[in-house]
Design brief:
By secondary structure, the protein is α+β, with helices and mostly antiparallel strands. It folds into two domains: 11-227, Nucleoside Triphosphate Pyrophosphohydrolase (Alpha-Beta Complex), CATH 3.90.79.10; 232-262, no CATH class. Helices cover 26% and strands 26% of the residues. The chain contains seven helices and 13 strands. The strands form three sheets. Strands 1, 2, 3, 4, 8, 9 and 10 form a seven-stranded mixed beta sheet that branches. The relative contact order is 0.18.
Length: 262
């Protein structure tokens, strides 16, 4: 008697940042995942991760710009995205009391690491800086849900944002071991040449990003696109398995052989 199929894994909310700049050329910030991390180890990815309970603390209403413009889900996801890029790359998407963007090093590495480990609340760090997270700075770029066949599943929102001009990215050395600004087309070239590991969702969004001429153009294109949630489906053709994307999601017709996805 055959065993009953296992139910699909629980879907966890997550958020990712496409941090963009135009000088010296149009580039996106990417980080290299530590080889010992269980998800996408060693891969070049956009900063991001799972949403935490603290991202949904209602006290954030007093520490954010744009609180009223977003529903509860989007508030928490945007805070998660901002927290993740702070932890992984040291960039803080926030404004000072006078409305000016943060500049310089927002916090020492040990503060970032304490937030990452859950030893310090992110909201307490922002309060101590007398700063306000800029929720309005983020534009929805894409939304991807992991296929049912994958053991770890996420509902990931991708956000595009222009990087603060006077902040320097530095990896945390824990989840990420390198941080680099790279042209989307160059990241794709390196992936195709086998010089960088880039997972399928990242590669697809790099291709979408590479269609833009600048950070502002990328954000404008994202604002003008109709958001279609991407949940890749497994197709069987001629004995081979392919991962297919919805044709109306903005990526064109995509049917990727499973062996090239993993």
């Amino acid at each position: 008697m055959s065993e009953a199929p296992k139910p699909p894994a629980e879907i966890k909310p997550a958020a990712t940042i496409l941090l963009l700049r135009d000088a010296p050329t149009f580039e996106v910030l990417m980080v290299k995942r530590h080889h010992q991390i269980d998800f996408a180890s060693g891969a070049l990815v956009f900063p991001g991760g799972k949403s935490h309970a603290g991202d949904h603390d209602l006290n954030w209403a007093s520490h954010t710009v744009g609180w009223e413009a977003h529903d509860a889900e989007q508030r928490g996801l945007r805070i998660a995205a901002i927290r993740e890029v702070f932890e992984e790359a040291g960039i803080l998407l926030a404004r000072r009391r006078d409305g000016q963007p943060m500049s310089g090093e927002a916090c020492p590495m040990e503060v970032r690491q304490a937030v990452d480990k859950g030893e310090t609340r992110f909201i307490d760090v922002i309060s101590s800086l007398d700063a306000y997270l800029d929720l309005d700075a983020l534009t929805v770029f894409a939304r991807w849900v992991t296929p049912e066949v994958v053991p770890k599943r996420f509902d990931t929102w991708f956000y595009a944002v222009t990087a603060p001009a006077e902040q320097v990215a530095a990896c945390d050395g824990h989840e990420t071991v390198d941080a680099e600004w790279i042209a989307p087309s160059e990241a794709l070239r390196l992936a195709a040449a086998g010089e960088r590991k880039v997972i399928f969702p990242t590669r697809m969004n790099l291709q979408l990003l590479a269609e833009a001429r600048s950070g502002a153009d990328a954000v404008g294109r994202a604002q003008g696109r109709r958001l279609v949630t991407v949940q890749p489906k497994v197709l069987l053709k001629d004995g081979r398995r392919f991962l297919a994307l919805p044709p109306n999601a903005g990526y064109g017709v995509v049917e990727e052989p499973m062996e090239s996805v993993m």
